[in-house]
Amino acid sequence: MWLKALKSTLIFLIVVLSNCGEVKPEMLAVGEMKCAHCSMSIVDMRFHTQILTDKGKRYHFDAIECLDDFQKQNNPPTKKIWVTNFLDRKEFISKEDAIIIKSDKIRSPMGAGLAAFKTHEEAKPFE
């Protein structure tokens, strides 16, 4: 009997502790997922953005403007929002720390010309 209780306790602790780490964005393969707002396939990873809600649901977007429109329409309670560094498609930046610019030099999937950068210096050539 005590062995069964110990086993249940250990399983519970493993599940709880495995969910206590740092929350990170999910890396996607090109075309693996569709945008939660416009339903286009996410293929240009320089513009991939994502939201993690307070309840743990993830929403992926093909452009910053889709993320912004989704937030305006649905107002999900968010735990974290990430945008991809335009200069490094494998690097995510917290949206609150990102430098987001609008530029005619940038052709984003939805055409608004929005892109995220880590620093103002990195963004200057695109302004």
What's the end-to-end separation, in Å? Answer: 68 Å
| Amount of beta strand | 25-35%
Low-confidence runs of at least 5 consecutive residues? none
Mean pLDDT: 88
Pfam families: NosL
Protein name: Accessory protein NosL
Description:
The chain has 127 residues and is of the alpha+beta class. The protein has one domain. 25% of the residues lie in helices and 25% in strands. Strands 2-1-3-4 form a four-stranded antiparallel sheet. The chain has a two-stranded antiparallel sheet with strand order 5-6. The chain is globular. The chain starts with a helix and ends with a helix. This is Accessory protein NosL. InterPro entries: N2O_reductase_NosL.
Ordered list of secondary-structure elements with their pairings:
Elements: H1 2-18, E1 49-53, E2 58-61, H2 64-74, E3 78-85, E4 88-94, E5 99-102, E6 114-117, H3 120-123
Antiparallel strand pairs: 1-2, 1-3, 3-4, 5-6
Protein name: Accessory protein NosL
InterPro entries: N2O_reductase_NosL
